[in-house]
Design goal:
- By secondary structure, this protein is mostly helical.
- It has one domain (7-91).
- It contains 4 helices and no strands.
- The mean pLDDT is 79.
Length: 107
């Protein structure tokens, strides 16, 4: 599927879409009290809130993320995810929270 959002629409919504998305999170650091956390919204929720269709909201988010974050940020995120997954697979200990997470049983 190919989709294209015209530049006028993209620039009109990109900052708000990023702010509402999971891309820029002001939400889950454990040191923040629950009333200060703000989880990001799904593409569907963003589209509904801004009066866009979901394909437009998703494309704006994807393009804006690539524009907002430099390549080094993407590489750091990949390295973090790799360490987190390997660490959990070895020990069952979350590398982010340092809490033991029991491994799920396979069905």
């Amino acid at each position: 599927m190919t989709y294209f959002v015209d530049p006028k629409t993209y620039y009109a919504y990109k900052d708000r879409v990023l702010e509402l998305s999971q891309s820029i999170q002001i939400n889950y650091p454990e040191h923040l009290p629950p009333n200060k956390r703000r989880p990001g919204l799904s593409d569907e929720q963003i589209a509904e809130r801004l009066g866009l269709d979901v394909f437009t909201a998703r494309e704006i988010r994807c393009v804006a993320e690539r524009e907002y974050y430099g390549l080094d940020e993407w590489q750091k995120a990949l390295a973090f995810k790799e360490r987190a997954c390997r660490g959990y697979a070895k020990t069952g200990l979350s590398s982010a929270t340092k809490k033991y997470l029991p491994k799920r049983q396979r069905s």
